[in-house]
Amino acid sequence: MRKCNKIGIIIKHEYKSKVRSKGFIISTLLMPIFMISIFLIPALIAVFSSESTEMKLAVLDKTSGIGREIVNADPSKYFLTDLTEDSLKAKVIAGTLDAYLLIDDAIINSGEAVIYTKGGGGLGFISSLQNNISGIILHHRLINAGADTNIIRISQEKVKISTQKLTSEGVKSDDSPILAGLGYILGLLIFMMMMIYGAYVMRGVIEEKANRIIEVIASSAKPFEIMMGKIIGIGAVGLTQVLFWVIIGSVLFFAANPIISSFFGPEQALIDTAAVSGQGQQLPTGFELPEIPVMLIIGFVFYFIAGYFIYSTLYAAIGSAVDQESDAAQLQNIVTLPVILPILFLGSVINNPEGTLAVILSLIPFFSPVLMIVRLAASEVPLWQVLTSFALMIATFVLCVWVASRIYRVGILMYGKKPKIKEIFKWIKISV
Amino acid sequence: MDLLRIENVLKRFGDYIAVNRVSFQVGAGTILGLLGPNGAGKTTLIRMITSILIPDEGEVILFENKNPNNAQNRIGYLPEERGLYKNLKVIEQLIYFAQLKNVDKATASSRAKEWLRKMDAESWANKKIQELSKGMQQKVQFISTILHEPDLMILDEPFSGFDPINTELLKSIVLDMKEQGKTIILSTHVMEQAEQICDNICLIDKGSIVLKGNIREIKKSFSKDTMLLEFEGDDSFLNQFDGLKFINRTKNRAEFRLENSEERAAQILEAAVQNVELSHFQVKEPSLHEIFIDTVSKRKENGNEKMQ
Question: How many domains does chain B have?
Fold first, then answer.
């Protein structure tokens, strides 16, 4: 009874003093703006750059009409020229012409052509030109080889694959791509929250130690209560922040949806599915929320909390071992490494969420919060794997709390010399 | 009733023995001076009383109860190194610390305001700690120590950082609390203050008790062997006495030590009255300061001899 009481007071104190701080309010509000700009700025840059830095290419055609076909492929980029090569060269050097392309009949066999520029133009320009020309050259080669125009048309027909997901309730359109994207975002979110809030816990512990507050609190409550109270209180702050973002995100999503779809046109919306509403009642707009698997939501909440607890207890132990933040860097690296490693594997796990590598990595407790959430989003993870991972996480959490609280109760009373890692492990064993 | 009994307590840190089989008692309603040079083991001892540390051997019995955890709420501890949250408002800080001692929020708030008023600090209630001067922070820290009305207060250098006016204020508060039946352990290096306030002292050096008991009795047990005379006239009458060790001898003033002081003090006084115009005569008790230095430095000499 008394114990709960004191942890409760500490949790409340930690929560209230953090939530009301300017730093928290600012970061909570700025984060969505930051995220939106991450998505919007590249899009805007792309829009503006495609308009302004477009190169104009003069085509000097010495063939029987291939030049005309190239120009027809994109008249905004290419135009035919009657000028001599020498005067074209002079114009490029003088800067009145961006570039010119010289083609002759040899191109059909050799497949080679040269653009003369003053330099630059960008890879995007070259690759789009290459695309345009190869199609035309292929066409000519086929004609030269005596192919029928019908066959040519058939050979150039593209393959379009769409996936349909089979479930016991019938065929549904597969939301895998967007879910994988969602998994990626959720994984990164958990990663970020673990790093940021773990560091908050560490800084809080160091502040209490450096200001000798700990001496006063330790004479009022047990070190274990103090440590867990701080971790739970700050964790609740993180949860508050995420909850706020989720709400803001959903509101923005529904508000922005009509605008986005009016840009792309409804037929170009990323997904067209009626999966959300069972009756097939389509929302009037382009984007639709894919059906989010229940397991993903459970997984996110679990891994968010468990991941945070595992890392923040370790951060608390580090904080207790040092006198000031600058001494913590070296110890911090040991803990940060297993948080950063899964980020490196993120791509390969998304590409092949059921591969052996992905399965093994995602079961490692320190990696699970990031990698398992990605797998849960991108594919159907067998239940036994999820449950195994949950059990491993809980076991790791218990172990971390035990180790960290043993270190903490000694560390908070130790001042002076920066302890070596070996010494810190000795603290686990000694009695206070 | 003994409010606190320390029985044969020993605490090791690795091979180093910080507190070596220490025993003493503190009676309810008394003030104990816990004295000793730096690194003597005072803080370790205090940490065991506040159950931040657990003794390796021996027992700390608080309120006649062997489980010290239950006692935490009845102790107020003012550590030597002061600790407050810099970003917290004074009133929030006070309430939080009181809540940790199981005082409910409303009570804590009203008591905090009352104490701030008593200490002339009402206007700071909504200021952040970091906006306060060091002396002001000291006051806040002191209030936080007593807000839960503890039966036992442990004050480690409570007067450091205070100006003379606030030192007197604090002293009177401490003595008031004693009147109310509270028990206080005062750890300090300032012997004059210990002498003024404490009933009993306990002098620790290198982890062991070297001197303990009632302050008056301790002073009595140290022989009164210093005399001070102030006078007008010729001081040659002093030459008739053998074995005076002068500490100070000027035209109108003589300070000296003598053996067998009880008897000879009367003789010297008599001679002085006959020969000079005496304005001041004193057989000085040794001050706690002298006792402290004497005891600790003697131990040092003995220790050195032993080592040799």
Answer: 2
Q: Residue A69, Cβ neighbours under 10 Å: how many?
A: 18
Residue B145 CB partners (closer than 8 Å, separation 6+): B76, B77, B78, B153, B155
Work out whether the CA dihedral B12, B15, B17, B21 comes out positive or negative: positive
Query: Which residues, in sequence order, are bridge partners of residue A170?
Result: A167
Helix (H) or strand (E) holding B245: strand B245-250
Give residue A284's pLDDT: 42
Q: In this structure, are B192 and B238 located in the same domain?
A: no
DSSP B89: B
Nearest to A219 among B52, B81, B99 (CB): B52
Residue B264 falls inside a structural domain: yes
Distance CA B112, CA B93 (A): 10
Query: Rounded to an integer, what distance in angstroms lies between the CA atom of residue A380 and that of residue A295?
Result: 9
Q: For residues A15 and A239, is the Cβ–Cβ distance under 8 A? A: no
Which of B79, B82, B100 shows the shortest C-beta gap to A220? B100
Question: Which residues 169-228 of chain A have a CB within 8 Å of chain B?
Answer: 207-208, 211-222
- The answer to whether the predicted template modeling score (pTM) of the entire model surpasses 0.80 is no
Residues B40, B158, single domain; the answer is yes
Q: How far apart are CA A402 and CA A419, in angstroms?
A: 20
The minimum CA-CA distance between A201 and chain B, rounded to whole Å, is 15
Q: Is residue A362 within 8 Å of residue A349, measured between CB atoms?
A: yes
User: How many angstroms from the chain centroid is the CA of residue A418?
Assistant: 37
Which two tokens mark A400? 């971390």
Does B87 sit within 8 Å of A218, measured CB to CB?
no
Decide: A375 and A362 in contact? Cβ < 8 Å.
yes
Report the pLDDT value the prediction gives residue A287, as an integer from 0 to 100.
47
Does B192 lie in the same domain as B81? yes
Looking at the structure, tell me whether residues B101 and B202 fall in a common domain.
yes
**Partners of residue A413 in chain B, C-beta under 8 Å:** 47, 52-53
Q: How far apart are CA B69 and CA A219, in angstroms?
A: 9
Between CA B69 and CA A377 the distance in angstroms is 48
CB A260, CB A286: distance < 8 Å: yes
- Domain containing B234: what range? 223-284
The complex's ipTM works out to: 0.76
pLDDT class for A234, splitting at 50, 70, 90? very high
β-pairing, B152-156 vs B75-78, is parallel
Q: Which pLDDT value is given to residue A130?
A: 79
